[in-house]
Structures are given as C-alpha cells and as structure tokens.
C-alpha cells in the first residue's frame, strides 16, 4: 500500500508524472559538475549557493547536496564557516592527476592483454580508427573527447569495473587540461602515432611493452605540467577579461 501511495504521490490529477526529488538532485549535480569541470567557477572562487540556486531555479537543498558530492569527487573544497570554494590550479596538482591516470591505465592494460577477446580488441580499435578518419580538425574539444573515449575503452578491456570507475573520475578532473595538453603537441599526429603503437602492443598481448608505452604517452613532465597549468589559468582569467 505504501508503495502504491508513493507512486500516486508522484502523479498529478492530470496523469502527468512529477519529477522525483532524487531526479532533481541528479540533474543539478550534473549541471554544477559541468560548471566545475570547465572551470566556470574560477580557481579559488567562493561559490555563492544562493545565486547558484536562483540561477538554476531550485532551492538551496539540491545545490548543497550537489556541492557536498562534488567535494567528495575533488572538484570543490570546503572551508569551515566560509562555505564551498572552487578547486585551485597548481602544476603539482595537474602532474599528480596525470601520474594517477597513468598508474590506473598501465595496470588496466596489463589485465586487458590477458582478459580481452580478439573481438573486443578489434571493436575498440575500430571505434578509434573511425575517429581517426574524420575530418574534424580545428575542434580540439572533439579530439579530446575521442582521446578520452579511446583510453576509457582500453581500460574497460581489463574487465575491472573499479579501474574503469576510477579512470572515469580522473578523466572528469583532467578534462579541462586534456584539451590544453593536446593543443600543446607539436602536431596532432604525434598522439595518433602513439595510439597506434599502443594498439599494436595490445594486439600482440605485449603487456610490459604496451604498459610502458602508455605511461610515457600519458605522464606529464614537471615542466609540461607547469606549462599546462599556466595555460589553463590564462584561459580562465585572460579569456574572461577578453
């Protein structure tokens, strides 16, 4: 009876289903997460919950729930008695995230060499090569999305759900920098050639060689981390001024 009453409570007299509170929280979380991923909150900026709630046309409750979740995800920080603040950008933080990503992907690649079927490998390769043939130069956002999808697909070949979840979380936190790092390459073909070598190692089940290739492909040097972080800050602050 309780379940029936609850269902009825979600439906108006006209038969239109009202959105559940949980649906609203998820929607608000997705919107605010996108703001955080793209640094629409400037680094170190205090997040005004009242203004954010008004902008999204909701109460502060789902906004606060989303911000608490984003703190756990590493996108915002809380300062006691002051509220939520956007994450800072430092070269060390950028480098650390890329090193963590490399560690996860390296371990996943070793498992993929042992666990993935030939059909699964070829499906992953086909998905990447389809993008590789597309004429969409000039869209660094599209290139970055394809690059992220390729690396996620490689990790899923490990058949380790926790590794896939971990990489998905890391990928969200570096998405802003991924575009900048790709743009900084001397030419886009460099990344594609590295992908081709990684694919060949996977086809040959060369776990050690492929893992080494992946780590070199992903990890940022300290100097590169400084460049990427500096470029990110310039894009946020100088871009806003422009």
Describe the structure.
The chain is mainly α and 242 residues long. It has two domains: 6-86, Orthogonal Bundle (Arc Repressor Mutant, subunit A); 91-227, Up-down Bundle (Four Helix Bundle (Hemerythrin (Met), subunit A)). The protein is built from eleven helices and two strands. A two-stranded antiparallel sheet has the order 1-2. Strand 1 and strand 2 form a beta hairpin. Helix 9 (188-203) runs antiparallel to helix 10 (207-218). The longest helix is centred in the middle third of the chain and has 25 residues, at 91-115. The chain is globular, with a radius of gyration of 21 Å. Residues 1-19 have low confidence and may be disordered.
Overall 3D form: globular
Strand line-up in the sheet with most strands: 1-2
Run of helices and strands:
HHHHEEHHHHHHH
What is the count of helical runs?
11
Low-confidence stretches: 1-19
Q: Give the averaged pLDDT, no decimals.
A: 85
Look at the structure and name the CATH superfamily of the largest domain: GntR ligand-binding domain-like
Q: Describe the sheet with the most strands.
A: 2 strands, antiparallel
Radius of gyration: 21 Å
Instruction: Tell me the CATH architecture of the largest domain.
Output: Up-down Bundle
- Portion of residues within helices: over 70%
Structural class by helix and strand composition? mainly alpha
Distance between the termini: 60 Å
In what range is the share of β-strand residues?
Answer: under 5%
Count of strand segments: 2
């Amino acid at each position: 009876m309780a379940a029936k009453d609850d269902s009825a409570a979600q439906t108006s007299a006209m038969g239109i289903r009202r959105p559940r509170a949980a649906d609203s929280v998820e929607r608000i979380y997705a919107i605010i997460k996108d703001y955080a991923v793209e640094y629409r909150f400037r680094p170190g900026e205090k997040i005004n919950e009242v203004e954010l709630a008004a902008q999204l046309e909701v109460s502060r409750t789902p906004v606060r729930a989303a911000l608490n979740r984003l703190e756990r995800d590493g996108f915002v920080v809380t300062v006691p008695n002051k509220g939520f603040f956007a994450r800072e950008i430092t070269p060390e933080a950028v480098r650390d995230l890329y090193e963590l990503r490399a560690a996860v992907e390296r371990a996943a690649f070793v498992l993929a060499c042992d666990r993935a079927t030939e059909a699964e490998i070829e499906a992953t390769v086909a998905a990447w090569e389809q993008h590789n043939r597309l004429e969409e130069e000039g869209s660094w956002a599209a290139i970055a999305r394809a690059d992220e999808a390729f690396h996620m697909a490689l990790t899923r070949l490990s058949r380790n759900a926790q590794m896939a979840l971990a990489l998905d979380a890391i990928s969200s936190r570096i998405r802003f920098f991924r575009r900048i790092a790709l743009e900084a390459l001397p030419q886009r073909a460099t990344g594609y050639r590295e992908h081709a070598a990684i694919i060949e190692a996977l086809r040959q089940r060369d776990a050690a060689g492929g893992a080494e290739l992946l780590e070199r492909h992903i990890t940022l040097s300290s100097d590169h981390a400084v460049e990427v972080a500096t470029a990110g800050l310039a894009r946020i602050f100088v871009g806003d001024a422009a």
